[in-house]
Amino acid sequence: MAVTAQLVKELRERTGAGMLDCKKALEATDGNIEKAITWLREKGITKAAKKSDRVAAEGLVGLVTKGNKTVVFEVNSETDFVGISKQFLDLMAIVGETLINNDPKTVEAALQLSVNGESLETVIVHAIATIGEKITLRRFKTLHLQETQSLGVYIHSNQRIVTVLVFDGKIDETIGKQLAMHVSAMRPQFISRDDISADFLASEKAILTTEAKNDPKNVGKPDNILEKMVEGRLNKQLAEISLLDQVFVVNPDQKVSDVIKANNVSVVDMIRYEVGEGIEKEEVDFATEVMAQVRK
């Protein structure tokens, strides 16, 4: 596959690596972006693709609770200005009520639900016509709480991040909210290390091993020393992405696992939605756009 300027630009934006390094990485991996990211990490040129999940879409996240049922959902718009308009907020309320009252399993099924005689999809189409932007129901998750369970909930003030933790056992509402706030801020990928797949561990260890061997500072070091270095780095990385291993943001003297144990509960589910995470946003070159209009 030919290495184009666009591919180099995309890799640079996702990794922060230099243009020349990005070109070399793409040439070495036949133009495969994901393999090129791994190549750069192994060479120690970049530690991680930190920008791969850049927020791109706009809109709001929502949460509705009724009885033992809670729904978390995200509705996207094209601009943040629309997200705070009365029409959009009214639509959010309709979407939340429709989801909580009907318990659909997929977005496709949700869009076919009836709202005052017309489908939710049609309601959204009407909103698009009124507001003048593309609007989509992106995702949702429904939680059915058992009698022995409790929730920790946090919605950020701008309604762009919502986190829900499900605890086995009853937790104090304030502490539950603090733990949910922690998840919102620290973005753990897993509840505990037990949830991390063997494939993920093997892949990360392989990358760290190659990176260590390619580091000039490690030339001549025996394999057993390199192995210990890799294990140490892997453990540090796992502690950063595992909720129970993280330092509690409200009290840095504690780990999250300490707080969980002290409250005699366990975390059985974790949902964190952030508006637009993982969606690529088209970049607009306004200078070029204006020039095109001038030349018409």
Secondary structure elements and pairings:
Elements: H1 5-15, H2 19-28, H3 33-42, E1 58-66, E2 69-77, H4 80-83, H5 86-102, H6 107-111, E3 114-115, E4 118-119, H7 120-131, E5 136-144, E6 149-155, E7 161-168, H8 173-186, H9 198-214, H10 223-241, H11 256-262, E8 266-274, H12 286-294
What does this structure look like?
Helices cover 46% and strands 19% of the residues. The protein has 296 residues and is α+β, with helices and mostly antiparallel strands. Among the domains are: 1-54, Helicase, Ruva Protein, domain 3; 55-144, Tetrahydropterin Synthase, Chain A, CATH 3.30.479.20. The strands form three sheets. A three-stranded antiparallel sheet has the order 1-2-5. Strands 6-7-8 form a three-stranded antiparallel sheet. It has a two-stranded antiparallel sheet with strand order 3-4. A hairpin with a 5-residue loop joins β6 (149-155) and β7 (161-168). 27% of the residues are buried. Residues 71-277 form the Translation elongation factor EFTs/EF1B dimerisation domain. Keywords: Cytoplasm, Elongation factor, Protein biosynthesis. InterPro entries: EF-Ts_dimer_sf, Transl_elong_EFTs/EF1B, Transl_elong_EFTs/EF1B_dimer, Transl_elong_Ts_CS, UBA-like_sf. Residues 79-82 are annotated as: Involved in Mg(2+) ion dislocation from EF-Tu.
Looking at this protein, list some descriptive labels:
296 residues, alpha+beta, Helicase, Ruva Protein, domain 3, Tetrahydropterin Synthase, Chain A, three-stranded antiparallel β-sheet, 12 helices, 8 strands, 46% helix, 19% strand, flat, UBA-like_sf, elongation factor, translation elongation factor activity
